[in-house]
Amino acid sequence: MRTKPLIDYFENLLPLNEEEKSIVEEAFKERSVKRRHFILQKGDICKHHTFVVEGCFRMYMVDEKGKEYNLQFAIENWWITDIGSFYSEEPSKLYIEALENSTVLQLGKEDQIKLFDDNIKFNRIFRVLTENALISAHRRILQNISSTAEERYLDFLKMSPHFFNRISNVQIASYLGVTPEFLSTIRNKIVKS
How many CB atoms lie under 10 A from the CB of residue 151? Predict the structure, then answer.
């Protein structure tokens, strides 16, 4: 059953009984996404919380000159959602693209509301998810304004070593806010020291 990774994820936060596991199986819809296909594009309203069962995604924006800025990556057992668009129901300024052939479980807004109304435990679980996303965003903002590019790269290596065989150096450079050439310089400097 494809919901097992999600149920395991939830149970790491709060144990679920059999009825609650059935609720998860009903509420979340499985979707296959081919590499280079989108689950969200600029101008669309984000209609789902997305849990990655298998694969890799990136969330990014494109400025008026066509330059891409990676904001988030997600692999197995991670969530990826434009939370602002999801809750405000306003058009997104972001894209969410599959970097690999992927399988996800998605929860629509109506199903989320029903989940919250039917069982307070899911309200608590999603509150923790939202709090964790906010902590991560604050950490990234602080890092971007107070760390050098080399420090950001070393932190990315430490916190996310599982991305390095799955994401190109161009994508990593965009995430860190540097050019691919500058990232190469940083990597060479680290190797020599």
Answer: 13
Map out the domains of the chain as residue ranges.
4-137, 147-193
Q: What contacts 6, CB < 8 A, 6 or more positions away? A: 24, 28, 51, 53, 105
So what's the pLDDT on residue 161? Answer: 84
pLDDT at 1 > cutoff 60: no
Cα-based torsion angle of the residue sequence 148, 154, 159, 165 in order, rounded to the nearest 10 degrees: 120
**Following DSSP, what letter does each residue of 93-127 receive, concatenated?**
S-EEEESS-EEEEEEEHHHHHHHHHH-HHHHHHHH
Q: Taking the model in full, what pTM does it have?
A: 0.92
The topology (CATH level 3) of 4-137 is Jelly Rolls (2.60.120)
Q: Which pLDDT score, from 0 to 100, does residue 81 have?
A: 96
d(CA 130, CA 128): 5
Give pLDDT tens digits for 41-58: 999 999 999 999 999 999
Rounded CA-CA distance 75/55 in Å is 6
Three-state SS at 168: coil
Q: Tell me which amino acid residue 98 is.
A: A
- The conformation of residue 76, written as its DSSP 8-state character, comes to T
